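Dear colleagues,

For the upcoming journal club I promised to circulate an example of a predicted protein-ligand complex. I picked one with nicotinamide-adenine-dinucleotide because it came up in last month's discussion. The inputs are reproduced below in full, followed by the predicted structure.
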Amino acid sequence: MGEFSGKVAVVTAAAGVGIGQATARSLAKEGANVVVSDAHAKRTAQVANEIINEYGVKTLGIQCDVRVPAQVESMVNQTLREWGRIDILVNNAGIDKPSPVWEMDDESWNLIIDTNLKGVFNCCRAVIPTMMKQKYGKIVNMSSVLAWLGGKEEGVAYVTAKAGIQGLTRAVARQVGKFNINVNAVAPGLAHNPFLDKLQPPEYFQKIRSQEILGRDGTPQDMANAILFLCSEKAGFITGSCLCISGGWFMY
Ligand SMILES: NC(=O)c1ccc[n+]([C@@H]2O[C@H](COP(=O)([O-])OP(=O)(O)OC[C@H]3O[C@@H](n4cnc5c(N)ncnc54)[C@H](O)[C@@H]3O)[C@@H](O)[C@H]2O)c1
């Protein structure tokens, strides 16, 4: 019996090599039945199968692009048909396409805002009516320390979206608190994974590392641990908050 035995958890963007998969695995390890949701169909099925085999929980792999409301609704309906409830929603999906503001085209802006910010709205809107009926729910949204720091190499749309997520988190938390639904955000610093090495040069990570006062890079598991805390009963009196997880890179 784990801490989340019997709970149903939906994790978006859970089929990559980063925070989403680490969170889905950690929830499964603690007994939750997990929806591995991701835009990438093949990896979604793979990760869902691995989790079933490794942790023996029930798992659904559902392809879902969080930008598309119809796909989000379909993912929620499929989950409800299978398991009848959704206790936990981790809105992890996010991408960046760095560019200075004067060079950013409309297409890039829309892609980043739609994935990072509208995706969170789409998933909250689709899941919250079920949580209201249950009078129970835990939602964790994915922000970033860059919402406070402003970023530099990172794009303006990304920073804007991650700051917007903090506002959305507070607004939604206010609306649903009376239904026993906790809504919080996490703001990771660096959660190093092999995919990021393809996007940024080593100097990018060295610069961040020099500012992480704990003297090491953050990992996807560091972030998953904090997300699980916010999904747990130990965090029952926390709502509308944003937990900074950056090894001291940024202190908030
Ligand atoms: N990695 C970091 O250092 C870091 C730092 C701060 C914040 N974050 C945020 O944490 C979240 C996870 O990032 P990560 O780097 O750990 O990667 P991750 O592995 O958790 O996510 C990557 C996955 O996202 C999926 N995805 C992309 N667009 C999608 C969409 N529209 N719908 C559904 N799935 C989609 C991809 O298919 C991929 O499998 C993001 O929101 C990111 O902005 C990451």
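Two points we might discuss: The mean pLDDT is 96. The domain at 8-242 is CATH 3.40.50.720 (Rossmann fold).

See you all on Thursday,
B. R.
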